[in-house]
Sequence to fold (124 residues):
Amino acid sequence: MDTTRIDKWCWAARFFKTRSLATDAIDRGRVRLNGESTKPSHNVKAGDALKIDNGSTEWEVVVTGIADKRGSAAVAATLYSETEESMRRRDAEAERHRLFREPASEIKGRPTKRDRRLLDRSSS
Fold:
């Protein structure tokens, strides 16, 4: 097997939790193949460059292996190699999040009255 669908590959490489999430991201243009947006049915092969935004993290990877079935995380890590620039950017973003946490990121849904008071108290 030397090619597989890009949605299957993104799911098998564990960038997305489900294949339908991978398909939706590709449809929305959050996954770019060799710098261009594509369709979920497009085939990916070894050597292709992918830019993947899964909502929380952005990755730039080069495909090194092909799989259409989801395996362990150790197997998934062998399917791609991340670019140096992408690693630096992710590390810088992680450091920024560690140093400055967004106050609203800890609140799920609409703030309660108590949450609002705590937010008001911390901002003043």
About this structure: Strands lie at 3-5, 31-33, 36-37, 43-45, 49-53, 58-63, 80-82. Helices lie at 6-12, 19-27, 73-77, 84-99, 113-123. The mean pLDDT is 90.
